[in-house]
Design a protein that fits this description.
129 residues; mainly alpha; de novo design (two linked rop proteins); 83% helix; elongated; disordered N terminus
Length: 129
């Protein structure tokens, strides 16, 4: 997203990164409520926390109204995206999710990470101009 477009965004809910992170969060909560996941409080809870962290850090950083802080919070959100992707491999490896479900969710998480990365790059360009 270009900085000129970002400056027109008034609410974090308008950010595509946050919208996609919200959808990803819904998916993670749905899969972690499945029978196999329900009993694994550690993994399901960690995956839920990681995905909530993505959308929460986007929101918090945006509301700080300082490009440097927003960039930092986006970095945290992107790292949480990587954490979630890693946890998806665990869920696949221990047969909590099927390969097709894994592929779909992994693609969603990668897309969110790319969007966050693009937003960070846009902030960098704006700060360096």
């Amino acid at each position: 997203m270009e900085v000129s477009k970002l400056s027109k965004v008034e609410h974090f809910e308008d950010l595509i990164a946050w919208q996609k992170a919200r959808i990803l969060t819904q998916v993670i909560y749905q899969i972690t409520q499945q029978e196999k996941f329900k009993k694994d409080f550690g993994l399901s809870g960690q995956m839920q926390r990681a995905t909530v962290s993505i959308m929460s850090n986007i929101a918090e950083g945006f509301e700080r109204n300082r490009p440097g802080e927003f960039h930092q919070f986006l970095s945290i959100a992107k790292a949480s995206c990587a954490e979630l992707r890693s946890q998806l491999y665990v869920a696949l490896d221990i047969n909590y999710i099927q390969q097709s479900e894994f592929n779909q969710i992994l693609n969603q998480a990668q897309e969110v990470g790319k969007i966050i990365g693009g937003l960070r790059a846009s902030i960098d360009r704006n700060r360096n101009e």
